[in-house]
Structures are given as C-alpha cells and as structure tokens.
Specification:
2 copies of one chain form a homodimer.
Chain A (H helix, E strand, L loop, with lengths): L1 E7 L5 E5 H7 L6 E6 L5 E9 L7 E5 H7 L6 E6 L5 H9 L6 H12 L5 H13 L4 H13 L12 E5 L9 H10 L4 E5 L9 H5 L9 H11 L1 E5 H4 L3 H10 L7 H14 L4 E8 L8 H18 L2 E8 L7 E2 L1 H12 L6 H18 L7 H10 L2 H12 L16 E6 L4 E6 L1 H10 L9 E4 L6 E2 L4 E7 L2 H14 L2 E3 L15
Parallel strand pairs in A: 1-5, 2-4, 7-10, 8-9, 10-11
Antiparallel strand pairs in A: 1-6, 2-5, 3-4, 3-6, 12-15, 13-17, 14-16, 14-18, 15-17
Helix pairs in contact in A: 3-4, 3-5, 4-6, 4-11, 6-12, 7-15, 7-17, 12-13, 15-16, 18-19
C-alpha cells in the first residue's frame, strides 16, 4: 500500500497508521510492517501504532528511530506491507523450549537485536528464556562473539592491552578512577569503557563525566589510549558490543543479571577493545550480586574459561562486597574521594587497598611486577604521584581540566546530617538502601547528590555523633531522601531502635 | 513536575516527554511516570517516549489509552513524577526463578495486566516464565479465578447453562455455528463467547459476523441468551476475562500456547458466563496443537480437574485434527457450508457428524438425552429444521437478517482452481499451509477470502480434476495466494511431483 510520509520525532522504532489503513494492510498495533523507500531501495521494518484522528487515511507517521535507516522526507511516498515474521522468533522459541542455540542462531538473534528488529517484548522473551534455561559455555561464547562482531573493535599494534571490570551492585566502587591511571602510569595500555548507572548511584562513566567528557567513538578511544596509555569513557557512545546495552535495559525491570548474559556482556567488551589480559573484580556479600565466596569462585572459573576460549588471560579477585567501597556514594562525592587518594590522602584505606590490589594483579599478569609484588608496585605509583599525573593526562586528552583538584569539586549544597540515635557499634550498612537513598537524593543525574558515610561497619559511634550526610542539588530531593532514610534505615547501630509504635519521632 | 497536557491520538499506554523534562524527572524511554489529574485526583501510570522537537519543554503528550482513565483535557496542567516500580515485577521474577506464585501474587499480576500497568515486555516475561516453569494446578486455578474476577460475569437464574470450546489450530472448524443452535433448540441455554482469528483463517466470531453483529456487552449476551437460548458473540467486546486477550496477543509472536494459560483461558470464559457444564473439543494430529491422543487425554484430565475445582462439569472430546473440518476455510465459505447443513444438506458428512457428536455430549450431560443417545437427538434437531430455526432467531436477536440463506452469501469473486497434477490419492492436507494460504488470500479480514477443498484425504483424484479453489476479494491477494500455493503445496496427491529442477512449470 502506498502511503505519504509524515515524520514524527518520537524516539522509537515505530510507525503510526490510520486504523483503516492498518486493517487494509492486515496489521494490528504491535505487528510489523515493512516500509520501502522507493528512492533508495532501502527497506525497514517497524512496529505499528494506530490512530483514527492524528493522521488522515493514506499517511504514515514515521518515528525517529524508524527513519534513522529509512531516510525518507516529509511528504514523500513509501510502499508499506505487512512484514514477514523474523525467523529469529523461532530461535527464541527454541530456547524457550529448552534447546541449545547454534552459533548461527545466536548470531541471527544478536544481529536483530542490534538492528532493532525485535520488539522489547520479543527481546525480553529471549532474555527470560536464557535466564531460566541457562546457556552452556558454547552458547555463552557464541553470544560473546556475536556481541563483538556486531559492533566496533579496537586494534592495537602494541601489546599487552589491559582491562578490568567490577561486577556491579556495590555502592561507591570508584576504583576504576585509580586502577586505570595506575596501570597506564606503569607503561601499560588500558582503554577502559565503562557504564552509566542504571540501578546504581553512579557508574564509572557518570563519575568520569565530573572530570571530562566521556562520549567518544571507538577510534577516538584507541587514539587517546595510544597517546596517554589510558582512557575512561562511556561504552554506550563507542558502539562497542551495542547489543549488550539493549539487553541490559530489558533486564532492568526484573533486576536480573542472567549468568550467561553477564559473562558475555563483560567479556565481549574486553574482547572488543583488544584486551590481552583482564582482571575481574567479583564483590561477594549478602547485599552484593554474588552472595557467597563459593558462588564467586564458580563465576570466576567461568570467566577464566570464557577468557581461554577468547584468548584473553583472565584473573579474578573475590572482594568484600557487603559494604560500600570507601565512604562516598554519588558521582561528585566519589570523584572527590578518589582524587584525594591520588593527591596523597591515606584514608579511606579500604579504597586505596582495593585499588592497588586490583591494579597489582594486572601488573603481575603483564610481567611488569614480580608475583606478589604487584600491589606494592601499584601503591608506589600512587605514592610517587605518577597515578595522579596520569589521570590528569587522561582528563586533558578527553577535554577536561587537567589542573582539577579534589577541593575544586563541590557536592550538592543541600545537606542533611544523620546522627547516631544511640551509642553502639555500626552493625549494618545496607547496600540496596544506600543506593536507593542516593538515587532519591538525585544521583546519578544530579552529580552533586549522594551520601558520605562518617562511620563504617564495626565502628563505634556515640549517640548524637554524625553517621552519614545526605547531599542533594535540589532541596525537594533532599526532603524526599530524608523521608526515605527514615523508612529504609540504611545504617544500623547496635542497640538502635528499629521502630517505635505508635509514633515515630526519630530524626526529626 | 508540573506539565501542560497535549492530547495525542496514539493507541498506547504512553506519554511523550521532552528529553530534558524526562531527565529532570529522572526517567528514560520505557520507564514509567505517574500522572496526577489534579482536578479529579485520579492518578495513572504510563510509559515514557521522548522527543526533542515534537513537543516544547514543559508539555506532556498524553496518548489515548493513557487518557482513558486519566481524563484530562488539552492545555490542562498535570503533576508528573517518576513512578514506583510495580511490585508485580518481583512476583514475575519469582516465577522466573522457578518458584510457585500464591493466589494473591497471581491476582496482583492479573489486575496489573487488565489495567495495562505492565508493559508488553513485562507481560511477555511473565508468559515466558510460566511457559518454561509450568504452573501447577493450584496456580492454574488461581489464574483462572483471577481472570474471571477482573472482568464481567453472567449470572443466570435458570440452570443448567451449557458451553463448548474447541482448542484451535484446525482450519474450517465452524462447528459452533451448528452446536450452539442445536443446544439452544433443545431448550438449554448456551451463551457462546468466541474469538476472532489471530493466527487462523477465521474464528467463530469472524464467521458469525457474516450473519450478524457480534459486539455486545456481557449484559446484552445474558439478555439475548435468556430470550432465545443462545448467542454467538465476540468475547473481546464483552469484557469477560479481559486479561486473557492481552496474554494471547503477547503469546502470538512465538506461536506458543502455554498449557497453564490455555487451561485458564478456556475455563475462565466458561466460568465467567456461568456455565454448569462444558464440552471441550480437543483436536489431535500431527498438524494440530495437540500431537498425540495420549497428550489429548492428559489435557482432557486437566480440564476435568480444573472444572471440578470450579464446579463445572467438564467432558472432553478427542477429535481428529489432522485435516480441516468440512471443506470450507475462511469466514463466508464456512458460513455457507454450515448453513447448507442446517438447511438439509448431508455433505460434508464430517462436519455434521462432528457437530452432532459434540452437541450430543452436552445433551447427555444435561440429562436432555439418555447416555449414548445425545448425537442421535442432536441429529434429529438438525433434521427437523429446529437448529436452522434457532440459528435464525439468534441471528435476528443479534441484529442480522433472519431470512438469510446459504445461497445469499457470496464468497470472493476472484477465484483460482487448482487441479490435480497427477492421478492418485490425496495423501496429505497440511493444516498450517492451508491456513497460511487462506490468510494470504485475505482471510479473515476479507470475509469472502478462503479455500474450498474439492478432495479430502484419502480421496482419489484424476489428473486435471480440481482439488481446491482459492477465493479472494482482491485480485492482487489472489495472485499472492497462487504464488504461495506453489511453494507450500498444501494438498499432496500421491505420485505428485514435489519439485522439478531446474524449472518449475506446474500450475501455470
């Protein structure tokens, strides 16, 4: 059917049809049509929305994402037909039925994911099926390679290339801001792509953005890394393993992180940046993604096996994941904390310790440091100020201010100090509650929002002593966070009243 | 955040936000916002689309389905916030993790389904999880009751109320057009809600619509049934078990019909119309939904058990499902065939036979006929013309022409006769290929489109003798169907050339 184009700036892969035209084409809302740009010969499939009044009969509303490849202009004519059902739906069905997918089938699905040929619901069915009917290592390898092959890759001429990854879920895990400059300062190359927070209070990309732009193409990342040894960028802008972001977004409503997809997600990015060796940080704890050391070891073995298949040397660090890393949560607060360590501060020791341990593993794997001497070497690099100097170079090459100091960065000006309601030991820091509170205060969108912990697990606090401060950029967000804090009680002090019936007057 | 309303006639549960407003609210495309109509106090959650140019900052595009409950007007102000994550996502996650859902959890999910609080992707995750981690009978019962309780119900004062259902997948299964009037003519009441074809060539509702309107409220169905003993309406308009339609639409891309959902779907509708007894027709065959008699028996036992729990007396008929029922496929062709039988024709015998068997079971269950005498009684009702008279009453009360005769109905005028390419026996009729061909010819949207089989399985045909005719309302559809028929070869004659290399000249 021939229809006249009306471009519509809506950011989805859809078209809007008059209900009668949809009936004539034989499609219902949610079905697919095939649209032919007769000038260029390009054909694009898109999902159908319908209207009876927003468009006259004979026209088709083309949404923005649909037109990215279609490239038609307002008023031009397109041929619109009912689209064939993608064959990948049969492959997804196979996985639903508990069968294993072949390499070709996985590649076909991932190509359709990258090209937005599958609806959110169809992709969710694939993810759910893979979550329930776990992928075997062959399928994970195929998925990893498919994710790599459908995106950009970096190709370095010198080796080894280093990479690191921390499994998420632990608030305040800003170690990349320390590990990357340490590694680069040692003379190794580390092109670090990182994520923005989806469920967290700040991903490494959100943090780095406080210091410099983070949106670069894959080629730019390679150039910057070749020049200064490292870069810390947002992976989403590089088009490296683009399928992964699309999968993660669909996992998000269910808070799942399917084992096979997680392995593929992490390793696809290492593989695509050309990493020869990678350190994977696996935080373990009741409130972390991985609950027990045993589970952590199992996951580590799988990372190592997948690395073997991809010819990437992998070592894993099982780390303590039941409390935040350091004391700061939220982009600016975390950057301040990381910069202070690089500037010579010795606290929080846990942050420095974790960073040099992870960096040290890479130094050892690369041969830069002798076995068991990596952490020492990393600490030395920090102590001499080389890591700070390297971070400044990275900031500069990414277009930030290389002279930035921790004191220059100002967290949110709306603050609220939460005091200990009783004297005693801090017996719990609840990761999920801390993240939720930081998000309510505005993180990661409001870079100055977040939390600063004054006491950590095991510390003794006196009644009335500050236990943490909430920071916000907007006063209404601070108010909401204060209210939420009352409910969630993310920091528990031994002997503290958990509730008071009938009336709750704590904190006010 | 306060935004100004711009109503947009797009048929989904979404809103359109300027990208900057979305950032300030803290939502991304696909996230949910909560919208408050400050005048009425009504709050509605909707999914976010974003734009940078279609709307100015400070405005919100409210799509049609979103406004069905919100009821705001163009230019009014609404308060928009990031919505809470529905708790039902945790229940869906539970099912993904292989746990059983409680009655309360299932009810909460189904309420969210009916109120469109779950996105298509979220609902798909639920369906996929239930497909892989099969529901036990408790869960199926809860699902059935939840579907009933979230929709309309009929409440009759006389009993018994009869219902029937055929598991789909067999083309040409127009038996409801015979069974309903037979039952009603016997003095029993049968308020039959039926479906439109989604993947088929014509559902009972599509067929009945050739004769009379089929869109009625639940109350109207009850009134009509009380007056003339029966009705044949489209279930989708009645708001009976509305969750079921929403679930079926999401199953459609994967061509799945999850066992638990199917049991619940069928029995919820029987329960909601107040049925005391129900006959379930389970067609079995390689090309049918149920592949073996053994599987059919197992399914029958589950229907009976679920019926027990709901206090509905259920009997199941395992029927032959490897060939079409009768010779006609497609709305008008099927109606002509059914009317002819009621008008006294004795062919196709298979259609008459199946219809009186199913109707007879209900007559026996209700006590109208003695054991093993039901089919005889049903055949007598047809023979005396009582069933035709009853169907005319049903047509009349639904607003159609009660004097309609089979000869008045004209199938598509574009026709193509396919002749036997060789002499031999018809060895296969492929259900899926026949349905696909009928759909390509235009069924069910074009009511006159479809197929008429001149030979059935086991018949001997001479070379050049017609084996089936394709009917279409539009010549281009006929052409497409002819092309597709060449590929699919839905009717195989023994000794027939299946392919000819290098050049295929059959049929042209």
């Amino acid at each position: 059917m021939k229809l006249t184009v009306k471009l519509m700036d809506i950011g989805t892969r859809e078209v809007l049809l008059h209900t009668e035209d949809a009936g004539n084409i034989g499609v219902m809302p949610g079905d697919r049509v095939q649209i032919l740009n007769e000038g260029s010969g390009v054909t694009v499939a898109a999902f159908v929305d319908t209207t009876t009044s927003l468009l006259p009969k004979g026209t088709i509303g083309i949404y923005r994402i649909t037109n990215e490849r279609l490239q038609v202009t307002d008023g031009s004519a397109v041929e619109v037909r009912r689209a064939e059902r993608p064959v990948t739906l049969d492959f997804i069905r196979k996985k639903m039925d508990g069968e294993h997918l072949s390499k070709e089938e996985t590649y076909a699905i991932i190509r359709d994911v990258v090209e937005d040929n599958l609806s959110a619901a169809e992709l969710t069915a694939y993810i759910t099926a893979c979550y329930i009917n776990e992928m075997d290592m062959d399928e994970v390898e195929h998925l990893t390679r498919a994710m790599v092959d459908t995106g950009e890759r970096l190709r370095f001429h010198t080796h080894p290339i280093v990479d690191k990854h921390s499994i998420g879920g632990v608030p305040g895990n800003k170690i990349s801001l320390l590990v990357v400059p340490i590694i680069a300062a040692s003379g190794l190359k580390i092109p670090k792509t990182s994520s923005r927070a989806i469920t967290g209070a700040g991903g490494t990309a959100d943090l780095m953005e406080v210091l410099a732009p983070v949106n670069f193409t894959a080629a730019e990342v390679q150039q910057m890394t070749e020049k200064v040894g490292g870069a810390i960028v947002w992976g989403g802008a590089t088009n490296i393993a683009p399928a992964d972001d699309k999968i993660i977004i669909q996992e998000y409503p269910f808070r799942i992180d399917a084992r096979g997809q997680m392995l593929a997600s992490v390793m696809a990015k290492k593989f695509a940046v050309g990493a020869d060796l990678a350190v994977i940080d696996i935080p373990v704890g009741t409130h972390a993604k991985v609950k027990t050391v045993q589970d952590g070891r199992r996951l580590a073995r799988e990372f190592i096996e997948l690395g073997d298949r991809l010819k990437i040397q992998v070592e894993c660090a099982i780390t303590y994941g039941d409390s935040p890393v350091g004391r700061a949560i939220g982009p600016k607060l975390e950057v301040i904390e990381a910069l202070r360590i690089l500037e010579g501060a010795e606290s929080p020791g846990s942050l420095l310790q974790k960073s040099v341990s992870i960096a040290g593993m890479a130094l050892e794997m690369s041969g830069k440091a002798a076995r068991w001497k990596g952490a020492e070497m990393a600490a030395e690099i920090v102590k001499k100020g080389d890591a700070l100097k390297k971070l400044r170079q990275i900031i500069e090459i990414q277009g930030g201010d290389p002279n930035v100091k921790s004191d220059d960065i100002e967290p949110g000006k709306h603050q609220f100090v939460v005091n200990a309601p009783a004297t005693g030991y801090v017996i719990e820091l609840n990761n999920k509650a801390l993240i939720s509170l930081a998000r309510t205060a505005g993180a990661p969108h409001d870079k100055g929002a977040g939390l600063l912990l004054h006491a950590k697990k095991g510390n003794r606090v006196e009644k009335g002593e500050p236990i943490f401060t909430i920071f916000a950029e907007r006063s209404w967000r601070l108010q909401k966070a204060i209210e939420e804090g009352r409910q969630l009680m993310p920091v528990l002090v031994e002997g503290m009243l958990l509730d008071r019936v009938p009336q709750d007057t704590r904190w006010t």
